[in-house]
What we know:
The protein has 446 residues and is α/β, with parallel strands linked by helices. 37% of the residues lie in helices and 16% in strands. The chain contains 15 helices and 16 strands. Strand 8 and strand 9 form a beta hairpin. It is globular. It starts with a helix and ends in a 15-residue tail after the last helix. The model is unreliable at 1-6 and 436-442 (pLDDT under 50). The protein binds pyridoxal-5'-phosphate. The site of pyridoxal-5'-phosphate has 16 residues, from helix 6. Pyridoxal-5'-phosphate binds next to helix 6.
Amino acid sequence: MNTHNTQSTQPLDYDFDAKHIWHPYTSMTQPLPTYGVIAAKDRQLTLEDGRVLIDGTSSWWSCVHGYGHPDILQAMEQQLHQLSHVMFGGITHSPAIELSKKLISMTSDNLTKVFLADSGSIAVEVALKMALQYWQGRQQSQKQQILTVKNGYHGDTFAAMSVCDPQGGMHTMFGNSVTQQRFAPAPQTPFNAPLLDNDLLSIRQIMKQEHHTIAALIIEPIMQGAGGMRFYSAEYLAGLRTLCDEFNILLILDEIATGFGRTGKLFAYEHANIEADILCLGKALTGGYISLAATLCSDEVALGISDSPAGVFMHGPTFMGNPLACAAANASLSLIATNQWQAQVNAIEVQLKKELSDAIHYDNVKDVRILGAVGVLEMTSTLNTAQLQQQFIELGVWIRPFSNIIYIMPAYNITASELTQLTTAMKHVAANITKTSNERTFISHG
Ligand SMILES: *Cc1c(COP(=O)(O)O)cnc(C)c1O
């Protein structure tokens, strides 16, 4: 066991870290504080100074079964010794086959083809490329625009950036290097509210006029995540499916944040009873143990791509189908298949409603939103992430606000008392926000 622990006996070199290592969405000249983590188990992070924090973020929404889960560890250890990686060109292996079978059987019936990618952003790139190549194969290569809604977030690579919210995203920073896509207003009808006429009308108008040039519509189903933690109407989502069919536009659903139970359904599109033509998965796919993503598509999309001039789908990352990552995903999906997540997520939702709802009466709180295992306090002004982060740590929790949002997305197996610690801390911090800051904030899950 000693060999495992030797590293943690060395004090962390925070000075080196601040001077040389990029962290997400940070500056090298004015680095934000970082906290050294030396271990993680269940829902707890252990800091180098010995403090133990209840994790409210499940490591950017991915670690749904908690840290150090014996099933996932065992599957990965076994796989590591058997075959940790091999190229996927001309080679296949059982972890990839098993995973693809699982993904095809758990998603909607029409999705039959799986592309295994290395991160969520790449799964989105793959989805967009699939849509463009599909229309080439259908002799409609003028269909090259991607339609999306404002407030979206789909990743940080260039094509993914092009469909992120144009204001909060990174469009202005990179100017003409970012492809100009077509943006409709963000859906305004909240989840479970009667559909507002304007929501679908604005989309219909764009599609009616521009369907000849629109290849696909991409959207995060039900929950817009990093773009503001907004939950919108399932009826709206169902309406998008109908409109896409009417105007011959592919529907790409980005379930990278919502997939695998987070919103109370296994996939968020199930709230609307629809099927995507192309589906992006990531984040919780491996239970948060290692990077992996997947893009699924229908037979029709795959056939169209085969009819395109290239005749093949033009993508193939070095670490495609990484066996170690597939093994982690297989173990995580086996845990999902026991269906315990359903009772767990329901219980989290009930408890969040009970414990967070009264925060709506706080001066600084603009809205309280809860759906599945997601609890959100939208504040009236932009928050100072670094300052609030420190307050949360003093309260024994890891919660990382962004923009004007304080939220939690915990592991599904969080205990009731751990969850109470998180909600108590959220309310305490929200009630005591004194000064706001002009800190730059971008749309990101940062
Ligand atoms: C996080 C996220 C992505 C990007 O995934 P990465 O693994 O960070 O590249 C894309 N879409 C959605 C909806 C996300 O939440």
